[in-house]
Amino acid sequence: MDMRYGLGTWMSVLAATPLISLLLLIRFKGLEYVIVHQRWIFVCLFLLPMSAVYDVYYYLRNWVIFKLSSAPKMHEHRVRDIQAQVRKWNADKSQQLMCTGRPGWQTISLRVAKYKKTHRKIFINLVDILDVDTERQVMRVEPLATMGQITATLNPLGWTLPVLPELDDLTVGGLIMGVGIESSSHKYGLFQHVCVSYELVLADGSVVRCSKDENPDLFYAVPWSYGTLGFLVSAEIKIVPAKQFVRLEYKPVHCFDDIYNVFAEESRRGEVNEFVEGLMYSKDTAVIMTGKLTDDAEPDKINSIGNFWKPWFFKHVETFLKTGPAVEYIPLRHYYHRHSRSIFWEIQDIVPFGNHPIFRYLLGWLTPPKVSLLKLTQGEVIRELYEKKHVVQDMLVPLKDMKSSLSCFHKEMELYPLWLCPFDLPSFPGMVHPHGDQDELYVDIGAYGNPKNPAYHHSNTTRRVEEHVRKVNGFQMLYADSYMTREEFREMFDHSLYDKLRKELDCKRAFPEVYDKINKSARH
């Protein structure tokens, strides 16, 4: 069995012991308020140290594997093991649908995938970087390799990914089967659009490779399919030359119309801007950031924002609303993971004083707590609170509909900051493509936190936002809670190629549909 699952079980017990005691105290003494509103006590005393142990374990594990084994040879062995599990499922004539054996708490998403309890678990231990081919300008990786691993490997070699989503623990498989985006997406598209090929184990236990030229239908159907066409076992991804720094220009804006005008103008300048991103702090205030790769930096303007004693990035950006436009030079890897330490701005609700200089200097090296461990130890009380009072959503809408969409978010939620990230959406076949036949610029509006609108209701409000997104031919990222009906879901996402592949590959008896993995009842 994969060692990670053994570690997960052990850490579950370790984490649960103090948590159970605390919950018992709450149960008998009526102190539920403490665990709900003072969660920082548990996070600081238990989760931050546990997260550090977790990181040390994976660092040592990867170092041992690198020293004692050949990743490509191990890959072939591991794929054969997955094939054997799938063939045994076939031989057993099991009525259970299949899913990965990775525990739901280990994913970066806040969802709890209870469907795994009734599915046949296929254990997949594929966590390595297999090859970096600088001549072909591609790297080959396994699906559980993380963005943190990839930047640590590529950047010292002078290479990077065209699209490198910012959180360290995001995995290649999640970004392909789900969705991945970054501030370079206005130029290169989504993460799936910089992938060259995929290797999958299908429902019959066979291994197939697909690309634009080889099994193209499958290649275009895999993104957003959430493991319902087969098990991803490797991917080839484009790489591009890297530079030492990102020259980041901060442009504060103080008018709603100007937020759109500046953001849209910079998003359309892909030949000039390598990176474009916006943080919106109220309906009328935002900071639009544009970046360029460079090896030359003004020494007095270098800001290593990834150092643990530095302010959280979103708090640092907010200061430019008062001080005005500015330029900084940020080390490349620090830029890529600029939102990791604060999990965008989610950590301010978990550790409210976490950005205080004393905390940063004394304990900043322990942050952030692992999202997976937060899920593992949150319990039903916290889960219900997050479901009813907390928003974690990304809606992808055409850039031309950005203003109406921001107005919808403000009316329904009144939640800030909002993350604004532009991306080019090619007219490729698959579940997600522009309404017409032409490539189109879209924007990801990311909402994370507690809405200020007193009328906010987790299901009713989300359904109204989903309705707006459907009307403008947009899409909802599927890692978050979706309240759409099956018919509404099929209206939002083009299932024509997906349904064709499901039938050809005999997936109906092997895997659930995407909707059955992401709808509310299946998740919770």
Folded structure, characterized:
This protein has helices spanning 3-29, 32-37, 40-68, 71-91, 147-154, 172-177, 185-188, 216-221, 256-267, 313-318, 320-323, 332-336, 347-350, 357-363, 371-377, 379-389, 402-412, 458-471, 486-492, 496-504, 514-518, 520-523, and strands spanning 98-100, 120-122, 129-133, 138-141, 159-160, 195-201, 207-211, 231-238, 240-241, 245-253, 275-282, 285-294, 326-331, 391-398, 418-425, 440-449, 475-476. It has 524 residues and is of the alpha+beta class. The strands form 4 sheets. The chain has an 8-stranded antiparallel sheet. Strand 11 (275-282) and strand 12 form a beta hairpin. Helix 1 runs antiparallel to helix 3 (40-68) and helix 17 (402-412) packs antiparallel against helix 18 (458-471).
Keywords, separated by commas or semicolons:
alpha+beta, 8-stranded antiparallel sheet, 41% helix, globular, disordered N terminus
Would you identify the regions where 5 or more consecutive residues have pLDDT less than 50? 1-32
Structural class: alpha+beta
How would you characterize the largest beta sheet?
Answer: 8 strands, antiparallel
Rg calc: 22 Å
Number of strands: 17
- Classify the beta-strand content into a percent band: 15-25%
Span between termini:
27 Å
Mean pLDDT: 86
Quick overview:
The protein is of the alpha+beta class. It has 22 helices and 17 strands.
